[in-house]
Amino acid sequence: MKTATIVGSGLVGSLWAVYLAKEGYEVKVYEKRPDLRKAKISAGKSINLATSYRGWKALDAIGIGDEIRKIAIPMYGRTMHDTDGNISYQPYGINKQAIYSVSRGEINCKLMDIAERSGKVSIAFNEDCVNADLEKGICWFKNSETGKITEVTSDLVFATDGAFSAVRYNAMQKLDRFSYSQNYIEDGYREILLPANADGSPKMEVNTLHIWPRGRFMLIALPNFDGSFTCTLFMPFDGDKNCFNNLTTKEKVSEFFKTTFPDFYNMMPNVAEEWGNHPLSSLAIVRCYPWYHGKTYLMGDAAHATVPFFGQGMNCGFEDCTVMWELMKKHGDNWKKIGEEYQIARKPNGDAVQDLSLQNYLVMRNKVADPEYLLLQKIERRMAELYPDKYFPMYSMVSFSNIEYKTALEKGNIQENTIKAMIDENNINHATSDQDIDVFIHKHLEKVFSMA
Amino acid sequence: MKTATIVGSGLVGSLWAVYLAKEGYEVKVYEKRPDLRKAKISAGKSINLATSYRGWKALDAIGIGDEIRKIAIPMYGRTMHDTDGNISYQPYGINKQAIYSVSRGEINCKLMDIAERSGKVSIAFNEDCVNADLEKGICWFKNSETGKITEVTSDLVFATDGAFSAVRYNAMQKLDRFSYSQNYIEDGYREILLPANADGSPKMEVNTLHIWPRGRFMLIALPNFDGSFTCTLFMPFDGDKNCFNNLTTKEKVSEFFKTTFPDFYNMMPNVAEEWGNHPLSSLAIVRCYPWYHGKTYLMGDAAHATVPFFGQGMNCGFEDCTVMWELMKKHGDNWKKIGEEYQIARKPNGDAVQDLSLQNYLVMRNKVADPEYLLLQKIERRMAELYPDKYFPMYSMVSFSNIEYKTALEKGNIQENTIKAMIDENNINHATSDQDIDVFIHKHLEKVFSMA
Fold first, then answer.
1. What residues have CB less than 8 Å from A381, skipping those under 6 apart?
2. A282 and B176: CB-CB below 8 Å?
3. B179·A182 Cβ contact <8 A
4. Over 60: is that where the pLDDT of A378 sits?
5. Strands (E), A71-178
6. How many inter-chain contacts (A to B, CB under 8 Å) are there?
């Protein structure tokens, strides 16, 4: 019987356990924290996630997509809230394409249940990885309750232990020629729960992602099943104004929301009271290489942790499982070959999803309120409607396809720049009729299709 | 009595101990390795270093420059060796400006002696820093011979423990919002000792740095006092040809030197026999920020390790001492203020010295054999001769001044690009007489002086 150790029972670790069980491995998962399903603890730093195409593909491939769909709320577009309380709407795609709001805790619990149900996966909790021998496939875990050290040897080790992976820190980072970076962006975030009305009804439209774009910062809200919304304020830590370090009193928090997000404030005038319920957290991009050494493989955030602005962290980690599984089917038990192809194939996509995420922060906090960008979006959406098999805007490539992230990034930027140039050259503007936009598309944008 | 702990008795740690002793601190230095002065061990990865202006300034400020000058060999320029064995020469500066070859081991031993001689510095060896409390100023050391753990608390802690600093790894890197990167370049290096002749005389000209520039790779040689040269081959690890991983047998090594460095091969036909005497080593750039937290300060390679191609690693670390000392004189015991100003002032220079180092690898391995670059250099040198107070080529700003590295990088590149453009516009070439070059300088390069 082939054996595998998985370090970390988060989203990617739990899903990968299901895959390995399916392939006949005996899988032991070691998790640093207590069992999410029993303890009253949060599942991690962010409460809500958006599942999109790549996530569903990885779940459906092993027949568990429908079980997860039951706990997912479709969001068909973005709803923008301006400082006067006006709202506007932009669909994400065509034909009811959507991204799906899920609770991190719920999906994680479900994935652990599914993994254990296979009969081939056991999960040990409170086990902190304190060292690893990457070449021999040995991990050492320290139990946080008993202090006992357990040595575990297996045929393969998968580190799915997140952005600050213990396997990577304790072993990989000490390898000669292991490149590594952890870069924090200037902004942090704080979550705020917007509760449902007394009768359980939601205070806003549910099937949409709400954004209060404010240029240098933003507030967003994702729907929950109980009618509440998980809201997140992203903003610089430091600065002259509009930064976390200036919101030092309840009065300042209250005043900030009142003037900056008036419609939100009206729904939640006690926002300052709830302000301290969630911590102020930082945001980092972690890059490293190689992603495998000896018998040990990095997957998910342990390989390519990103900032959350494209909603692709989990989806990219799940796609690691898809790719690794396809390589298993291709190379059988030749794990050296699997490792080499895995890292060569995935590293550029890990880098690209990070670049895409940074780029999409600008889109969300600023561009979605910029008339020029809205015009570009309108034209791109119309192109996708007219030529659904030929034209894919960058957002669609990332969220509604499994086109490689690196391709989505490169091609998406070229497409946008080409269309922007054509808009300028042809004097297209907000007054241009829908009919004339169609003419413009047919006449001038042929060359953009040829990129697809 | 104010106390300070220094982690690492390398070049920067030993020098900084002398400074702190001078300022009245009681200094305890903890070094992971055995005492260099007693054990037969190498002082680190590279055997030779080049001391230049910033290094001498830091040594002279506390009156120990002359003691070090006794063990330093001036190198007034570069001597290039082409594949036909022809040599050419480029002075580094004007008026006998030189960089000085010193043995890393010798200068380190001297600095430790000087530090201990102060009566205020003690150095403990075989003490590996296993943890640190940055805010409380506590370090824990494990003795590699006895296994005993020692807890040391002091008013200030200085981590001068090199590129892979234990203080940084064990404590700083775990701080929220600590940015960190270790990036290895594609190339590695291997040292080769070219011995003196049987009568002790050197096999090549001594007061120069020898380079065999070969485009993508290079061999260099620095003189030693005993007539030998420390030679270093810098080359990619992997590749189609001319890479370390292809030199798998003594025959291949011998053939490689014979065809690629024929004059070197003639001096050392047994090079393949000596090939394995020194390890193949990697080269990394380490960046991080912040450089201080609580009572703990990063200095030297622990803050800004660089690749060696500008010979500035030690000089930049010594300049950290100069800067920190000047801030002590400015702010007295206000170490919070010293730390803040130190990192704000020095971080951009740490980044710049790394960029300069990467850039100078191109110069050394390639440009020094490029006729266009040689023409540029000739004109720059002539400008410096004519206007020694007004014009400073980039190399001179870095090696013969304490102009900030960031300024040297920015201004140096602008100067070079401006002069290159003027050369093209005015059809200056190798046939241009010295007299006409002087005319060209007076007529067209006035604007370059105004940048100085």
1. A91, A94, A393
2. yes
3. yes
4. yes
5. 73-75, 77-81, 87-91, 99-103, 121-124, 127-133, 138-143, 149-153, 156-159
6. 36
d(CA B152, CA A355): 44
Same domain (yes/no): A341, A199 = no
DSSP string, A320-387: HHHHHHHHHHHHTT-HHHHHHHHHHHHHHHHHHHHHHHHHHHHHHHTGGG-HHHHHHHHHHHHHHHH-
Verify that B196 and B277 share a domain, yes or no. yes
Would residue B94 count as lying in a domain? no
**Interface with chain A: mutation pick from B45, B165, B178, B180, highest number of A CBs within 10 Å:** B180
Asked if the Cβ–Cβ distance from B184 to A173 is below 8 Å, we say no
Phi, psi of A403 (to 5 degrees): -55, 140
Same domain, A312 and A443: no
Asked if B184's CB is within 8 angstroms of A179's CB, the reply is yes
Q: Which residue of B has its CA nearest to A284?
A: B177
**Residue among B353, B363, B362 at smallest CA distance from B285:** B353
Burial label for A331, CB within 10 Å (0-12, 13-18, 19+), is middle
Provide the chain A residues 149-208 that lie in CB contact (below 8 A) with chain B: 169, 173, 176-184
Interface test mutation site (partner B, options A169, A178, A182, A189, max chain B beta carbons within 10 A): A182
Q: pLDDT tens digits for A303-346?
A: 999 999 999 999 999 999 999 999 999 999 999 999 999 999 99
* CA gap B97, A36 in Å, rounded: 68
CA distance A88 to A79: 6
A166 contacts in B (CB within 8 Å)? none
CA distance A28 to A30: 7
And the tokens for B210? 């020898």
- pLDDT computed for residue A45 by the predictor: 52
On whether the CB atoms of residues A214 and A364 are closer than 8 A, the answer is: no
**Cβ-based neighbours of A376, under 8 Å, separated by 6 or more:** A416, A419, A420, A423
pLDDT digits (tens, 9 = 90+) for B75-87: 999 999 999 999 9
pLDDT digit string (tens) for B385-421?
998 888 999 999 999 999 999 999 999 999 999 999 9
Binary contact (A179, B183; C-beta < 8 A) = yes
Query: B167 near B161, Cβ under 8 Å?
Result: yes
Give the number of domains in chain B: 3
DSSP state string for A260-279: HSHHHHHH-TTHHHHGGGS-
Statement to judge: residues A165 and A197 lie in one domain: no
Domain assignment present for A78: no
A181 and B182 within 8 Å at the Cβ level: the answer is: yes
Which of A252, A282, A312 is at the close of a domain? A282
Residue A15 within a domain: yes
Task: Kindly report whether the global pTM for this prediction surpasses the value 0.80.
Answer: yes
A35 in the Ramachandran plot: left (φ > 0), alpha (ψ -120 to 50) or beta? Answer: beta
Task: Name chain A contacts of B177, Cβ cutoff 8 Å.
Answer: 184, 237, 282
- Residue A27 near residue A6 (C-beta atoms within 8 A): yes
Q: Do A317 and A405 reside in the same domain of the chain? A: no
Query: Domain of B53: which CATH number?
Result: 3.50.50.60
Q: Are residues B405 and B421 in the same domain?
A: yes
Domain-terminating residue out of A318, A339, A360: A360
In angstroms, the separation between the Cα of residue A80 and the nearest Cα of chain B is: 30
Contact residues on chain B for A182, CB-CB shorter than 8 A: 173, 178-181
Q: Does residue B224 share a domain with residue B311?
A: no
Would you tell me the crossing angle of helices B405-425 and B434-444 to the nearest 10 degrees?
110
* Mean pLDDT value of segment B211-240: 95
Range(s) of the domain holding residue B376: 370-450
Which strand (E) or helix (H) includes residue B448? Answer: helix B446-449
Task: Check CB contact under 8 Å for B179 and A184.
Answer: yes
Assigned domain for A87 exists: no
Same-domain check for residues B61 and B136: yes
